[in-house]
Amino acid sequence: MLAQKYNSEIKKELQKELGKANILAVPKMIKVVINVGLGEALLDKKVIEKVRQQLALITGQKPAPTTAKRSISNFKLRAGEVIGLKVTLRGQRMYDFLEKLVTVVLSRVRDFRGISRKGFDDQGNYTLGLKEQTVFPEIEYSQIDKLRGLEITIVTTAKSREEAFKLLSKLGMPFEKET
Predict the structure, then answer these.
(1) What class, spelled out in words, does domain 30-159 have in CATH?
(2) With CB atoms counted within 10 Å of each terminal CB, which end of the chain scores lower, N or C?
(3) Domain assignments of the chain as residue spans, ordered by start
(4) For residues 120 and 133, is the Cβ–Cβ distance under 8 A?
């Protein structure tokens, strides 16, 4: 649905707004990465499996483990240990997830006034952090053992923050009003 709207309407609007001569130069989404850091997994290995099930419910895809690159003795961390999970969504699943995020999930966030405009990097990607996984309708509050935050990164082909902002605004992301 969102993918069709992007291809039929949004792409042409962005081409005019950004002054691009070629339709292929118009920014688009490449992937959406959902990441959960699990520092407590060093003490309790069962946490990884619980969060793996929750992420699979949220995204419809099996999460991949992320491992520590270096050993840090102060944190009792060894290189190669699993310290998080991530899911990379592309294609139709990416658009479906973004549509669910915009229409359902963000409206369930407490005291929601729009997402921050400060999450853009210089390459045109956007990162959004959520404090708890219960804002997703697939997660039942009674089934979770602990509230955990997650990070959603939207990777685009935009060349600047402004291009990425216009793309995500057209896709329906509710940014906070400028003051």
Answers:
(1) alpha beta
(2) C
(3) 30-159
(4) no
